[in-house]
Amino acid sequence: MTSGTVEGSSALSDLSPQAPAWTREQADSAQGDLLEMPGISALAGAANVIMQLALPAVGYGVAESRVDSGNLFKHPLKRGRTTLAYLAVAVNGSPDDRKAYRRAVGHSHAQVRSTDSSPVKYNAFDPALQLWVAACLYKGWEDMQVLYGDPTALTEEAYQQGALMGTTLQMPRDMWPATRADFQRYWDSTVSELDIDDTIREMLVSIAKFEFLPKPVSFLIGDFGLFVTTGFLPQEFREKMLLTWTPRQQRLFDLHNRIVRTVVQRLPKPLRAFPFNAYLWDTRRRIKAGKPLT
């Protein structure tokens, strides 16, 4: 199996031109006001995690991680909080918020690196891997706008702000594909090369079934979790995950989305933004109180 760096960046090397280089201060001060994230996006969180972990270097980085405090299966509520808070900070945070979160995540990421026995090479600070994760987060934002938000929000200007999903960590701004068209080429090329082995697939199916939740809860909603997670996944990922998806399931998923969209659009803005607005508030509270963020 090839290394994570190759699989995470091979398509990127073919893209030209790249986005302009920024200083760290410019990246931390960038605006994300066009990336409004509907709170209901959290429902697609498992699908987005699966896309991220489908890259072998990212998947094994999580599967072999020695950072128990961030283990989804051991601390699901904490892991959910830190992931959603990261999105809130990346999109709506101040420069100080982003700096604080980067330091906190960096402390955890320092322990995430491959060993001699790892099937693939990985390092959580590898910007090529961070690019892939950021690309998945941005792709998820686009999908949520189409399903539950405003499809006209998918503009080139909003795409440029999407770089925040990577630059809030260590990804240099100039690694972000220069245009949406370049991004699509990077995405298509990387997805076509993904190879999910049995070890990672087993972990990802467990995530799809919400098996990281307490057993009574996952028993009750596991089938629903698998249904909606499979529905949110692009077809290429369903195939690589060996997940079946029938026309009847698609019709049910479309009905589910129409109902959810109708409800979401009638909510007042603070409720539409929940829980992201709550996690941003909580992050700032933790920073002020000197409490850990991750």
From TrEMBL:
- Which Pfam families does UniProt cross-reference here? MPAB_Lcp_cat
Amino acid composition bias (Polar residues), ranges on this chain: 1-16
Q: Where is this region: Disordered?
A: 1-29
Residues in a coiled coil are none
Location of the ER-bound oxygenase mpaB/mpaB'/Rubber oxygenase catalytic domain: 40-261
Q: Which GO MF terms does the UniProt record name?
A: oxidoreductase activity
User: What is the official name of this protein in its record?
Assistant: Uncharacterized protein (DUF2236 family)
